[in-house]
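Need C-alpha cells for this chain, all 156 residues.
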Amino acid sequence: MIVYHASYTEVTSPNTSHSREFLDFGPGFYVTVIYEQAVKYAERFKRRGKNAWINTYELDDASLKEKVTRFDAYDERWIDYVMACRTGQVPDDADVVIGGIADDQIFRTIDLYFSGLISKQDALQRLVYSKPNMQICIRSQMIIDQYLTFKSSEKL
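Here are the C-alpha cells for all 156 residues:
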C-alpha cells in the first residue's frame, strides 16, 4: 500500500529515534494512506514559516506479520488508548498501530474529556458519527527497515 508522511523536510530514511512522545498512538513514525490528510498536516509547517514536504512510501502490509493494534472506530477502546498514549503510558507493545487520528475537530472533544469537562460517555456520543481518518504509527525500526520503502518526496 502507498502511504504518506508530512514533514518540514524530505525523509528518505525514517528512524523511530526521532519520534516524539505523547502522540495519539505513542512515539513512532506516522504515515497515512490519505494523501489529502498528509497535505493538510504539511500545511501546518508552512503556517509556521517552515518548508512542507510530502514523503511517499510503499508499506508491504501483506507481509506484515508483527504485532498490530487496529482501531476501526472512535470508540471507548480508541479513546482509552489515545488518552494513555497522550499521557506517556503506551498501553501495549504493538509494532504498528492503525486507526483514526485525533485531528482538530476530534481533538476538541478529546481535550474536553481529558480536562474533565465532559464524561467519557459524552465524548463517545460526540464522536459516534465521526468517520475516522487513517493514521498508521510504526513504532518498530525493524518494521520500517523491512516493510517500508521510500518512493519519492514533493515540496509543497
